[in-house]
Design goal:
The protein is an alpha/beta fold and 285 residues long. The protein is built from ten helices and 15 strands. It is flat, with a radius of gyration of 21 Å.
Length: 285
């Protein structure tokens, strides 16, 4: 799915006019209409109700809109890491990032970046365990926690929501929990050393995830493996929204307890040593 198609969909949803939305993005009306139809075919649903006089969001379009905005935000955040042009930028950039985020958002945009900067080499340090940036000579890192080290600087790129999800197969076997208290009866997949997080809605809840039960079936120290295990139907897991967007969109995963939000959501931060603040090879990122 092309991000520019998502951008067009969001713009049409805002102005409710395909021609005007396309014009604002530099697209002819016919091209904008064709691109929007292609997106609907990919999703398998009509995102808008069309008539000769007006266009309105369909129910499916209203449901898809927040997903589209979230994935576009993550895409733009990734591009900001490979952002401003510096013609004389050169050297090796040691970039620490989680394997899951790199696979989904960093590696796909590297060809464009490396083509733009032929004198730069990217040295990816992948893993979900945080490296000591100073000790390992890291130039840039993506983190989902606020950095307190006085030798580092941090810039917020995007929110980092967490949601509960499971596969349709698992839910057909075990049932969909109707309230947080029901989680004690379900198989749980959890990230290693993850701190319990409170679930809340308009009506208060004191239930934590993972719940206090003996039904934790799998512990992972890798986000990709946890996502794959969830799709495979092992149990319910808490994932970063950006890491399971595609699976939710394609129906491989279903959100569990959608009326409940995870308390204390984090953010995605770009972190770098203060000493590298003016490095041209890092400025281009």
């Amino acid at each position: 799915m092309e991000t520019e198609s998502l951008r067009l969909f969001i713009k049409v949803a805002e102005v409710l006019n395909i021609s005007a939305a396309g014009k604002s993005l530099g697209l002819a009306p016919a091209i904008a209409s064709s691109r929007l139809s292609k997106l609907e075919n990919q999703i398998g649903a009509d995102l808008f109700h069309r008539s000769t006089r007006k266009i309105t969001l369909s129910t499916q379009g209203e449901q898809f809109l927040p997903y589209a905005r979230e994935i576009l935000k993550q895409h733009d955040a990734a591009l900001s890491v490979v952002g401003k042009e510096q013609d004389d930028a050169s050297g090796t950039i040691r970039f620490a990032v989680s394997s899951t985020f790199a696979q989904l958002y960093i590696v796909p945009v590297l060809p464009e970046f490396l083509d733009r900067y032929p004198n730069i080499t990217i040295d990816l340090k992948l893993g979900d365990k945080e490296l000591n940036i100073i000790e390992h000579g890291i130039d840039l890192a993506l983190r989902n926690s606020v950095i307190k080290d006085s030798g580092l600087r941090a810039r917020k790129l995007a929110d980092d929501r967490r949601i509960l999800c499971a596969s349709p197969d698992y839910l057909s076997r075990k049932g969909m929990p109707g309230e947080p208290l029901s989680l004690v009866n379900h198989d749980i997949i959890m990230f290693k050393d993850a701190k319990p997080r409170k679930l809340h809605s308009n009506s208060d809840s004191s239930v934590m995830f993972p719940p206090d039960s003996n039904k934790i079936r799998l512990i992972c120290d890798d986000g990709t493996s946890m996502r794959i295990a969830t799709v495979a139907g092992i149990g319910i897991s808490m994932n970063a929204y950006w890491s399971v967007f595609h699976e939710l969109e394609t129906g491989k995963l279903v959100r569990v307890l959608p009326d409940y939000e995870v308390e204390d959501n984090t953010s995605i931060w770009l972190v770098y040593p203060k000493a590298n603040a003016l490095s041209q090879k890092c400025v281009c990122l």
